[in-house]
Design a protein that fits this description.
The complex is a heterodimer of chains A (308) and B (272). Chain A has 11 helices and 13 strands. Chain A is α/β, with parallel strands linked by helices. Chain B starts with 14 loop residues before the first helix and ends with a helix. Chain B has helices at 15-20, 23-56, 73-94, 96-104, 107-112, 118-144, 155-179, 185-201, 212-221, 223-235, 241-270. The chains are: A alpha/beta (308), B mainly alpha (272).
Amino acid sequence: MILAQGLRKSFGDFEAVKGIDIDVHRGEAFGFLGPNGAGKSSTMRMIAAVSPVSGGELRILGMDPAVDGPAIRSRLGVCPQEDTLDAELNVRDNLFIYGRYFGIAKAEVNDRVDELLEFVQLTEKARSKVEDLSGGMKRRLTIARSLINRPDLLLLDEPTTGLDPQARHLLWDKLFRLKQAGVTLVVTTHYMDEAEQLCDRLVVMDKGLIVAEGSPLALIREHSTREVAELRFGVADEGETHDALAEKVADLGHRVEVLPDRLLVYSDDGEEVIAKVHERGLEPVAVLVRRSTLEDVFLRLTGRTLVD
Amino acid sequence: MSTYEQRVRPVGLPIGEGIGRQFDYWWTVYKRTWRGTVISSFLSPIFYVLAMGVLLGGFIEGDPAELEGATSYLAFLVPGLVAAHAMQTAVGETTYPVMGLMKWQKVYDSMLATPLTARHVVAAHLLFVGFRLVTTCGVFMLMLAPFGVFASWWGPFLAFGAQVLTGMAFATLVYGFTTRLNSPEGFGVLFRLGVFPLFLFSGAFFPVSNLGPVGEWVAKLTPLWQGVNLSRMFCVDNVDWPLAAVNVTVLLAITVAGWFWSVSGLTKRLVH
């Protein structure tokens, strides 16, 4: 569905995407993870055949976006980061008008609008103005809009950012159904649980490059341990760190991470780590053993530095 | 550099097809907004005609030699006023509305995610502006007919065409300008230093010869004067055809250049 080799994107002197290879297959859910500025959205815009490629090769649905942009876009569904709905039109008109951009006949668009409103549970809001909808409803409407042309490939740029847990779970449910119906999904997200839930395979991007690739489980296996023991010692004094404590437990896990208020010991057996910590006379304020998550992988690969 | 940039032009929809697919959108927009345009489009110009043409004009001697062939100040004023009104309508439709669709609501972005391209989007929006010009100038001219200001039956039709063309010249120019703005602050400069002086000094209210030789030449270089002059020549039936050809050519040239400027502006802005 998508084949990229050495794909690059530059804006003047700034290189947003520095040569990435991607291969997305039919029917799979593929994710892009990465901090802000990693190049995810630039990559998505190139895949959406909106942003011209600066270098390398890109084929979408077997076509070259530089030549067949309109033909590619006619088979894509795009759910952008911002809703881009027409706030002054009602819900139904937003869908109807969008369907007309694809050249779908009026009667057919009307049928699809009814069907999609049902699918995203907005039938009762059909005549409401978009500006009166909640964030979750707007997001569902945007997803319904992206499906109006029955796309082969659905691009979702941070589909659930800013939504409450109920709305997120409802959206995930809709996306699962689409996946089951054979739609290929490409998702960017900041939420690791979303990536774990939705994606069969994902890449972690950082500073314009792919730094890891695989299934969520494989990535955890490769870049983290089975469990993490969190040892909470309280916030270190001004100018001090917990480095000295870290040295005392360094041999207990594969890796120890020092945070201002706690140590994270990456090990395959967290309980054993805790037991040994106590044996050594260390007394954390609180301890917690948990399974490694994609978030641990993500933070390991892209760092904890805040990126705005 | 990439091999992509040397490739052929993208294979797209024919322009007519792309515009047709946006008809429902613009029709919905019109149904939603037409009531709000009634006051600015029809009532304000009529107030101008009454206050300046009828009431103020009553103090001005109707000498055709002084008034470019018009037999009364009202007959002199009206054709230029409609042309100036076309400019204002065009500027109004291509400033905040374009900024809104491009930057605030990002509706253009959603359009460009479909098979439509910047060319289709610009063309459909400008055609909508053209439609607004046709309706406002058309109704304005119809409302003026009872005032007895038209010297022939055919003149007003040609004048109407000139007014719409004047509006389109400004629409394409200002559309291109708006696509290059990052914030609406630039509109203040456009209104104060562009639209307002043009409105006052392009010959709608007095013959540009009153501005002195240099002022007259400067006024005649402005796009609005071309439209005012055309509109007036047709309405008062005092046509200098070679000059009319020059006026039409200038307005057409601006419209065509403005079209390319608008498409390149929107492309640079949203397809990057």
